[in-house]
Amino acid sequence: MSFLTLDHVTHHYFSASSYTKALKDISLSIKQGEFVALLGPSGCGKSTLLSIIAGIVEHTSGNVFLENTPIKPSDKAIGYMLQQDYLFPWKTILENVMIGPKIHRSNDPAIRTKAEMLLKQVGLTGISDDYPGSLSGGMRQRVALVRTLLNDPKILLLDEPFSALDYQTKLKLEDLVSTTLKAFNKTAILVTHDIGEAIAMADRIFVMEANPGMISKVFEVPIELRQEAPFSVRKHPKYQMLFDKVWEELEDKEGNPAE
Amino acid sequence: MAPETNTDNQLFQRHKYKLKREKRIVITWQLLLLLAFIGFWEVASRLYWIDPLLFSSPSEVIQVLFSNMADGSMVKHIQITLFETIAGFIIGTLVGILFASVLWSSTRFSKIMDPYLVIMNAMPKVALGPILIVALGTGYVSIIAMGALISVIITTLVIYNAFNEVDPNYEKVLKSFGATRWQQFKEAIFPATLPAMISTLKVNVGLSWVGVIVGEFLVAKQGLGYLIIYGFQVFDFSLVLSSLVLIAIFAAIMYKVVERLEGWLIKSKT
């Protein structure tokens, strides 16, 4: 059964003098627990697509279904991680993490325990009362992950969450996010322009092209790679083969004088 | 040979000493400038380089201050002016923040209001003085209204701009948790603009003084602005200058208090 379905989703951006077709006829379906990556050049509308799935941007035509019901904004089912952590600098780490429950006015006393447990799980202990300013980029992004997970979303949207980090931190965090999401059996969509990251983390890769944004090709990541953690995937012989194929696909598309 | 372990500390001590010395030099010069100004004023007045009837002299000003303080009349004037200024300042700032919040709550409303805000901002608020007096009477209410009016529009505009400049991704994060617009305001927009609000406080201190003094010029029977006008009418410029000195001192104190408040608020929030 399909968990998330996009049915001919199209989106336009309007300005006073013209319009642009940002997305054209995007149709895809994702299974429960699956990790997919949207890979493409900048301007192909991949972030817009995430915002549409999150219900933050309203698409101009087509349908989005989550568990066969149309998606609506303010749906608790969606978790969002952005390029930067966007932790609130005036809130402590714990207050930042607990923002979801606070917005839902949840009075569940167990939620605090759960928050601290999740923080521990991502390797952050004894910082609950610190402010984000005193944390490194990698730690902050882990806090953002906990903030998202605490809300217990059905699906996680990752909008290039590692792109602002240095390479080592990025590799470590990829492993952490991947194993954590597997452990909770979460469905996730990762937007990235890093081929390696897409292969290392995802089960399926949707390659997109720009002007208008469309899905040009879908790659299945071989089962051997899916079972490995991202860091070891990069060392697997099949990794390079897939990398070359995806690379070729992207090269073909960039050959267009579109951008 | 000097013990190696001491050199780090020695360097640090030397650095601290340098900072202290620099601070002392600056303060010394500041005091010297003040003394030179007062001294020159006194001398110029005594030697008739300037007309002592018009420009008075420091000794004269001090004498006026003391005699008026002693009989308690000056204290009364200071109290009333301070009360009006602080009230005008607080009302102007709070109402400005409130207006900005209302504008933020509806994009359409803010578009509708835009030309009116531009006109009200461009208009010299003190020109409304006579109307205020007619509407609110000749008491301190219209003077407070003047002090508030002069800062309220600019506060509204500055804070509203600050609201709009908050990184939209903070709202996006909250929206993804299903936050209402009010929750977005409470959790992100308002706290993020706190520094901007505090910097408008500093501007508003000065503006409220302008409003209150002009208000007192127009109508009051009490207050430092009244003393200036009264001194002018009876040609007692020692009184005018004494009032000016008092205004300078209290405006500076108020500014410093707001600055302290700023340091305290910012520290407790980050």
Automatic annotation (TrEMBL), chain A:
Source organism superkingdom: Bacteria
CDD domains, A to Z: ABC_NrtD_SsuB_transporters
Keyword Nucleotide-binding recorded: yes
A Pfam family recorded for this sequence: ABC_tran
InterPro entries referenced in this protein's UniProt entry, alphabetically: AAA+_ATPase, ABC_transporter-like_ATP-bd, ABC_transporter-like_CS, ABC_transporter_ATP-bind, P-loop_NTPase
Molecular function, one GO term: ATP hydrolysis activity
Boundaries of every ABC transporter domain copy: 4-235
Keyword Transport: yes
Assigned keywords, A-Z: ATP-binding, Nucleotide-binding, Transport
PANTHER family: ABC TRANSPORTER ATP-BINDING PROTEIN (PTHR42788:SF21), TAURINE IMPORT ATP-BINDING PROTEIN-RELATED (PTHR42788)
Full protein name: ABC transporter ATP-binding protein
Organism: Oceanobacillus jordanicus
Lineage, opening ranks: Bacteria, Bacillati, Bacillota, Bacilli, Bacillales
TrEMBL record, chain B:
Pfam families: BPD_transp_1 (PF00528)
The organism of origin for this protein: Oceanobacillus jordanicus
GO biological process, alphabetically ordered: transmembrane transport
Cellular localization per UniProt: Cell membrane
Transmembrane segments: 26-49, 78-104, 116-137, 143-163, 207-231, 237-258
Sequence ranges assigned to domain ABC transmembrane type-1 in this UniProt record: 74-258
Name recorded for this polypeptide: ABC transporter permease
Cross-referenced InterPro entries: MetI-like, MetI-like_sf
Protein's membrane topology: Multi-pass membrane protein
